[in-house]
Prior knowledge:
Layout: H1 2-17, H2 28-37
Amino acid sequence: MKQLLILTFTLLTAAVFSQKDYFIKEDWEQARKLAKEQDKILFVDFYTDW
């Protein structure tokens, strides 16, 4: 049981850290083009300090 938990934790950790994130600031058209080329969706993150 302990080995199964260690294996599961290791695989999940590897899956999380193998993802590569791309951040594109202030260039909406470039982000759209890249997402379309890679067949991915866009994640838009914004905030304000009103």
